[in-house]
Amino acid sequence: MENYRKARTVEQPWPRPFPGLPADTPEIHVKDGSKIRNLMRYALSRMEARPRMVFTATGKGVSKAITCAELVKRRVKGLHQHTELLYCGVDEVWEPLEPDAGLDSLTVSRKLPSICILLSREPLDATRPGYQAPGSFDALWAQAAREEAGGGQRPGHRRRRGGGGGGGGGRGKGGAARQTGRAREPGRGQS
């Protein structure tokens, strides 16, 4: 592939994981380079006016989409969530670096992990896989906040104090001590 450069990437059309959604439902496509601050500003402004929204992401943007959905759920109470995991096709077109070399352009088809997260103020079908009721993880969040406030220690475990690690007197990982000034004890053969 050192003789090729990526010319373009074409995403194949997404399957509609949530049938029956109104056409005016906002869909936020999260990409790897998207700023969470900008996504949140847009999502919260849309959630004020509409009862539902969808976050979608592919590849490296999946974790960022999950983060955005969780942040929206913490700011807007009472949201129902339905999550769908799927694979989406992506075609990458690679062109030769030197057109006169007689190389053809290549098309590489890949399947990337993708996610669709539907957040709704209205109740969703609780029998479908991927459904989360509002407040179902509030106890988990509260426990995590308590552990964070308490330093995250487990009962019966003490936290070590001080720095430097293994008692080497701050000399790193067992390295020889550097002699500065006069020695504390006379060396061998000295009095």
From TrEMBL:
Record keywords: Nucleus
GO MF terms, alphabetically ordered: RNA binding
Record's protein name: Ribonuclease P/MRP 25 subunit-like
UniProt biased composition (Basic and acidic residues): 182-191
Source domain of life: Eukaryota
Gene responsible for this protein: RPP25L
Xref: SUPFAM superfamilies: AlbA-like
GO cellular component: nucleus; ribonuclease MRP complex
Main location: nucleus
Family that this chain belongs to: Belongs to the histone-like Alba family.
Compartments reported by the entry: Nucleus
Domain DNA/RNA-binding protein Alba-like intervals: 27-85
